[in-house]
Amino acid sequence: MDKLKHFIDTHREAFEDDLPPMGHFGRFDKRLSVSSRKQIRWINVLAVAAVAVVTLFVFIRIVNEIKDVSVQQTKMYTCETQMEIEELKVYYNMQLAEVCAQIRVLYKSEQVPGGLELLEETKKVLKSSHEFEDAVLPTLPCSDAGLFAMNQHYSNSLESLQIMLKQMEKAIQ
Fold first, then answer.
1. End-to-end CA distance of the chain
2. How confident is the model at residue 115 (pLDDT cuts 50, 70, 90)?
3. Among 106, 85, 93, which Cα is nearest to 166's?
4. CA gap 40, 63 in Å, rounded
5. What is the pLDDT of residues 129-151, one digit of tens each?
6. Running DSSP on this structure, what letter comes out for residue 1?
7. CA-CA distance, 10 to 123, in Å (whole number)?
8. pTM reported for the whole predicted model
9. What SS3 string covers the chain?
10. Coil, strand, or helix at residue 21?
11. Per-residue pLDDT at 88
């Protein structure tokens, strides 16, 4: 090693003036590009893994929400009083439809003052009843308290429609 050091020290000027051999810088560029390709490949792998994790998270969340909805629907249809709830719902819907049909017949057959407004209010009561069935009824407890709340809602709706029918009948006489 001492001989090499002595040779370099004595011939230093020759080493400083010489250019590196042809292709020397190309080999370094090649080595640098290989390492940067590895970095890019690694970054791509990490990006794909991140996308996969996010996709998996979203998928699991959707599956859990679907399960929650099905469990809620199962609870709604498996309670003890479910048969009573369904029968009560059918009964009141038939009653509401009957009163609405009578209101429509009066409206079409006779020109009742304010009949159009009463017909519009009838539609609002029916819409409210449908919204109750869609939004509130599934959340009611499967118990006597749930039946009571359902009965109250439908009784009030039916009473409102009967009051409107009586108003139309009074206007005709």
1. 128
2. confident
3. 106
4. 34
5. 888 888 888 887 777 788 888 88
6. -
7. 108
8. 0.49
9. CHHHHHHHHHCHHHHHHCCCCCCHHHHHHHHHHHHHHHHHHHHHHHHHHHHHHHHHHHHHHHHHHHHHHHHHHHHHHHCCCHHHHHHHHHHHHHHHHHHHHHHHHHHHHCCCCCHHHHHHHHHHHHHHHHHHHHHHHHHCCCCHHHHHHHHHHHHHHHHHHHHHHHHHHHHHC
10. coil
11. 82
The pair of three-digit structure tokens given for residue 27, joined into one six-digit string:
């080999």
Are 111 and 52 spatial neighbours (Cβ–Cβ below 8 Å)? no
| pLDDT the model gives residue 70 | 59
Element (H, E) at 83: helix 82-109
* Of 9-13, 107-111, 145-149, minimum mean pLDDT range: 107-111
121 burial via Cβ count (<10 Å: 0-12, 13-18, 19+): middle
Q: Is pLDDT of 54 > 80?
A: yes
Residue 152 phi, psi (nearest 5): -60, -45
